[in-house]
Amino acid sequence: xxxxxxxxxxxxxxxxxxxxxxxxxxxxxxxxxxxxxxxxxxxxxxxxxxxxxxxxxxxxxxxxxxxxxxxxxxxxxxxxxxxxxxxxxxxxxxxxxxxxxxxxxxxxxxxxxxxxxxxxxxxxxxxxxxxxxxxxxxxxxxxxxxxxxxxxxxxxxxxxxxxxxxxxxxxxxxxxxxxxxxxxxxxxxxxxxxxxxxxxxxxxxxxxxxxxxxxxxxxxxxxxxxxx
Length: 228
Prior knowledge:
This protein is α/β, with parallel strands linked by helices and about 230 residues long. It contains seven helices and seven strands; from the N terminus they run ααααβββαβαββαβ. The protein has a domain at about 65-215. Helix content is about 35%, strand content about 15%.
């Protein structure tokens, strides 16, 4: 979403690609790890190279226009830019059955409204709903903060998503590198078993030291997952 790389500290945490860290992280997906390291070492870090490099499945849909307010100071201009970004994202992903949101910080917070200076760093409820109403699964990156423990923030995040997604329960995967990062997953019914199976594989596989499965109140999902 927000494109602040090169103008802030965003994107600086790439220690996971160091040779000393290879055994800790590469096991999750050697192909993705090796290709990401190649891109970072090239010095030219663009989503284009992820798309052209065949890192993800061939039918992956990329929506590459960044959402940022670097050129806009007026609220009306930021509003128009955000509406155009959302419209373009919805159009580009009309055939998708899973959408991954990668905001710099995560789900909206009261301190940064959608058209504020830092609003582009967040995904907002109306935007999440616009995709969920298409009956597609959603994955959202969430950067944790100091508002509570990992467990507290995870519970709050999943509760908020449950409200946004018509009561559908989700789960979360934490990734521990430098700091804890969270991925919230709200699967549609047809995807739930597959997603949970993959999450369990990550948590119990060679990279179990960095992945943690966190789930609560999964009454609507076909399998029960114990809290991590």
